[in-house]
Specification:
globular; binds magnesium ion; binds guanosine-5'-triphosphate; 325 residues
Length: 325
């Protein structure tokens, strides 16, 4: 809770390696104070540049910031990781800022958990705002974004990625939509297209989102969501992150969303929906880990060979393994 940067860095390493369950449980009651913001979008749209600019803007208001950059460790973005480190070095001399890069190391389901835990460490350590940068490329990134209280989606003109964003389900999770690289041609077109899609999808998305949360609320016996749930309109903000243009407006929207979450009761609903999703996936993972450790590897190998030889169907093997049939 009053860790030095060095102790904090050490704990984060233990968390990333899955060796800090006790510490995380001890810290857990002290979490829940920070504003957790997920920043996601297609590769190269300017997420890191924007995160850097936002961190500076928060610091100018005296707000402390932790940045969690989830490196995709992919050949496409490998170069940008080095770029991130260089850019972020600007902030690294400031005691009110802490930047942590996490490699995905091919772990899929685990990454969302580890990211949540790293966020909790920063939260307990007293950082006011935690920015999580992920490349919005698939379900695991969407899962990480869902663990945030506010999701900021970054688009850029001319990438044709507005359609991709919808495919990845990213647009529907956007609380704030940023069109970065507003100095590039085609920015008006991108803004118009996104606004149109938001308008078109607004009802369906909100109903869907509302529905998901309601399902969580039902099973957890929570009170109904307030009507204000539908009141938030995702703003579309243009920025030139590399020059700092539009960053203040993004900051204002993030403050507004935070206030919206707190004053409407939406925050507690989101937190409970997240808690449910996290609990269920953790139980699933724990059950699987326990189950696989208790398996006879030779028998398992034999059954796998039987599936490959078409002697047993996968469903039959599952029945035998689980029910002993
Ligand atoms: N023209 C222009 N270039 C920008 C702007 N913002 C960022 N860039 C540049 O775009 C490139 C990619 O920026 P990043 O911030 O690394 O993008 P990213 O989304 O974090 O990239 P990945 O993490 O690899 O997905 C860099 O060369 C930036 O300098 C902008 O507003 N306008
Ligand atoms: Mg980046």
């Amino acid at each position: 809770l009053r860790a030095s940067r060095r102790d904090l860095a050490r704990l984060l390493t233990r968390v990333e390696n899955g060796h800090a369950h006790d510490e995380l449980s001890t810290l857990f009651p002290y979490t829940g104070q920070a504003h957790v913001i997920g920043v996601t979008g297609a590769p190269g749209t300017g997420k890191s540049t924007l995160v850097n600019a936002l961190a500076k803007a928060y610091r100018a208001e005296g707000i402390t910031v932790a940045v969690v950059a989830v490196d995709p460790t992919s050949p496409f973005t490998g170069g940008a990781i080095l770029g991130d480190r260089i850019r972020m070095r600007e902030l690294s001399g400031d005691p009110g800022t802490f930047i942590r890069s996490m490699a995905t190391r091919g772990s899929l389901g685990g990454l969302a958990h580890t990211t949540s835990d790293v966020v909790r460490v920063f939260d307990a350590a007293g950082y006011d705002v935690i920015l999580i940068e992920t490349v919005g490329a698939g379900q695991s990134e969407v899962d990480i974004a869902r663990a945030a209280q506010t999701t900021l989606v970054v688009e850029a003109p001319g990438l044709g990625d507005d359609v991709q964003a919808i495919k990845a389900g990213i647009l529907e999770i956007a609380d704030v939509l940023v069109v970065n690289k507003a100095d590039r041609p085609g920015v008006e077109h991108t803004v118009r297209a996104l606004r149109a899609m938001l308008d078109l999808g607004h009802r369906a998305e909100r109903v869907l989102h509302h529905g998901t949360l309601m399902a969580a609320a039902d099973s957890a016996r929570l009170p109904a969501l307030p009507d204000e749930m539908t009141a938030w309109q995702t703003p579309v903000v243009q920025t030139i992150a590399s020059e700092g243009t539009g960053v203040d407006e993004v900051l204002a929207r993030l403050h507004a969303h935070r206030d919206y979450l707190r004053t409407t009761g939406t925050l507690i609903q989101r937190e409970r929906a997240h808690a449910q999703a996290e609990l269920l996936t953790r139980v699933r993972d724990a059950l699987f880990t326990k189950w696989i450790a208790g398996q006879d590897q030779l028998l398992l190998g034999d059954l796998i060979a039987r599936i490959a030889a078409r002697e047993m169907s996968p469903a039959q093997v599952v029945t035998r393994l689980i029910d002993g049939g």
